[in-house]
């Protein structure tokens, strides 16, 4: 029986599908529906709004050129916590949307053990039991979950100030808030690299909602097999043979 979260997600997906479009062409597979893509971009927008307004507040001597974008220093300080609240809100919806596929499995532990060979390119395809998300994506997801909790707690303390929580709590909150931001920013840079240069074809999953079959059997073989019923290794070999045959003509 579907849980309350699953029922909510199903209704949200159906509602957004009526508003937007999922463009899937021949040789492609649907990866992310409209609702998921909407949440992804809202998370991205409010993360960077929070980041840039925060830079102008915490390091004005270095990033003072950010504050005019938000109407000056005082307005940046007023907007920053609201940007943070909206970032946490939209990511919370995304977390509910992805809670099941982001659960850790034995396949993820095996993926982590083979991380070096995957990064080096020794393996042409990801491990055959790599599902909808791989272990690296799950690590980043849970890092953001923890980061959002830290943001929310420390942000409330900083927002209320020393009069409410005391100077020591505020001082520690500044440190934890900044450390969490730096860690999350590093993860976002890795995410941006992998979604563009590192794994070509990934970006369109969050624009049109579809990926090529070649992308699917390369990076998420178990998911490819689940949605097509075909063996990913065999599909890869057949594609390689066709390519070689085309070159020899």
Describe the structure.
The protein has a two-stranded antiparallel sheet with strand order 1-2. The protein is mostly helical. It has helices at 4-19, 34-58, 60-63, 73-98, 106-113, 115-120, 135-160, 162-165, 167-198, 213-219, 221-228, 232-248; strands at residues 28-30, 210-212. It folds into 3 domains: 24-99, no CATH class; 102-133 and 209-249, no CATH class; 135-198. 72% of the residues lie in helices and 2% in strands. The chain is built from 12 helices and 2 strands, in the order αβααααααααβααα. α4 (73-98) crosses α7 and α7 packs antiparallel against α9 (167-198). It is elongated, with a radius of gyration of 21 Å.
Any descriptors?
single chain; 249 residues; mainly alpha; two-stranded antiparallel ribbon; 12 helices; elongated
Summarize the structure.
Helix content is 72%, strand content 2%.
Q: How many E strands?
A: 2
- Taking strands numbered 1, 2, ... along the chain, how are they ordered across the largest sheet? 1-2
Question: How much is the average pLDDT?
Answer: 89
Count of domains: 3
Query: What kind of sheet is the major sheet?
Result: 2 strands, antiparallel
Instruction: Summarize the helix and strand pattern as letters.
Output: HEHHHHHHHHEHHH
Based on CA atoms alone, the radius of gyration comes out at 21 Å
Shape: elongated
Work out the helix count: 12
Could you tell me how far the N terminus lies from the C terminus, measured between alpha carbons in angstroms? 56 Å
Structural class: mainly alpha
- Percent strand: under 5%
Low-confidence stretches: none
């Amino acid at each position: 029986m579907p849980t309350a979260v699953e029922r909510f997600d199903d209704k949200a997906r159906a509602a957004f599908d009526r508003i937007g479009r999922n463009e899937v062409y021949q040789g492609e597979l649907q990866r992310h529906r409209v609702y998921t893509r909407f949440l992804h971009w809202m998370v991205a927008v409010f993360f960077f709004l929070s980041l840039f307004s925060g830079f102008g507040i915490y390091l004005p001597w270095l990033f003072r050129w950010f504050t005019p974008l938000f109407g000056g220093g005082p307005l940046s300080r007023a907007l920053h916590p609201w940007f943070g609240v909206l970032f946490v809100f939209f990511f919370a919806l995304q977390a509910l949307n992805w809670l099941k596929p982001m659960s850790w499995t034995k396949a993820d532990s095996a993926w982590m053990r083979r991380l070096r060979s995957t990064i080096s390119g020794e393996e042409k395809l990801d491990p055959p039991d790599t599902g909808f998300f791989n272990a690296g994506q799950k690590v980043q997801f849970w890092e953001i979950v923890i980061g959002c909790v830290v943001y929310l707690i420390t942000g409330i303390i900083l927002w209320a100030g020393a009069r409410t929580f005391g100077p020591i709590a505020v001082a520690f909150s500044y440190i934890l808030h900044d450390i969490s931001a730096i860690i999350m920013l590093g993860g976002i840079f890795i995410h941006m690299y992998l979604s563009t240069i590192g794994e070509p074809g990934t970006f369109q999953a969050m624009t049109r909602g579809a990926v090529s079959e070649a992308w699917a059997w390369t990076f998420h073989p178990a998911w490819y097999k689940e949605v097509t019923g075909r063996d990913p290794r065999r599909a890869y070999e057949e594609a390689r043979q066709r390519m070689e045959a085309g070159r020899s003509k």
